[in-house]
Every structure is written in structure tokens, then in C-alpha cells.
Amino acid sequence: MISLEHLYSLESEIKSALGEVQKKLVTVCAGSADNKEIDNISERLNYAKVKIRLMELELRQIQDRQDGRKFRPIVKSFEDQVQEYNQQLLWAIGGKRITQAERLREKYGMI
């Protein structure tokens, strides 16, 4: 059975991940970030997405539905933030996402 403490810990993990993304997006928007930092932001966004999905699954398993209902707006807020930060990242890097394979091809002429 899922406890409320576990949901609160997931909530704090998601908040901290999104807080990191928000801080790093400032440097990306200013144009002073490299590809490694952009990859890091993307990884943190994916981490937050996974934790949000986990939180949604665990909300379905919670015994007290009344307690579970108060987390639904929180989950929706997190999903909206992830989508907004993803859009900001795409705008900041000009809409083109450079993959690891493309970077290797540019650097070494391989793959």
C-alpha cells in the first residue's frame, strides 16, 4: 500500500528537479550554455516526467481517495511545468536538437 509520505517525497523530488531545470534554462536562454548543459537539462526533464508518471500510478493505488484527490492538481501543475520548460528549451536552442550521433559526426566525421 502506498503511503502519503512516499507521495510527498516524490513531490519534493519533482520540485527539486524542475527547480534545477528552471535555473539552468536561464543560462541557456542567455546563450552561455554548451551542449553538455543542454543534455543535462533534457535528462532532468525526462527524470521529472518519469517521476510524475510514477506519482500518477501510485495515486491510483492509494487507499484514501480523498487524500489522493489533493495531489491531482499538483500532478497537473508539474506536467504543465515540464511542457513549458521543454518549449523554452526548444526556443532557446533554436528548435534544433543536436543528438550525440550528430555531434560525433561533426567532431570526428564518423557514424
In a nutshell, what does this entry contain?
This protein is mainly alpha-helical. It contains five helices and no strands.
> Tell me about the biggest sheet?
none
Question: Termini separation (Å)?
Answer: 48 Å
Which architecture name does CATH use? Up-down Bundle
Number of helical stretches of at least 4 residues: 5
Helix content: over 70%
Oligomer: single chain
Q: At the first level of CATH, what is the class?
A: Mainly Alpha
Topology pattern, helix = H, strand = E: HHHHH
DSSP strand tally: 0
The averaged pLDDT comes out at: 83
Q: Hey, roughly how much beta strand do the residues contain?
A: under 5%
Q: Mind telling me the CATH superfamily name?
A: t-snare proteins
> Low-confidence parts lasting 5 or more residues at pLDDT below 50?
none
SS-based class = mainly alpha
CATH topology: Methane Monooxygenase Hydroxylase, Chain G, domain 1
Radius of gyration: 17 Å
Total domain modules:
1
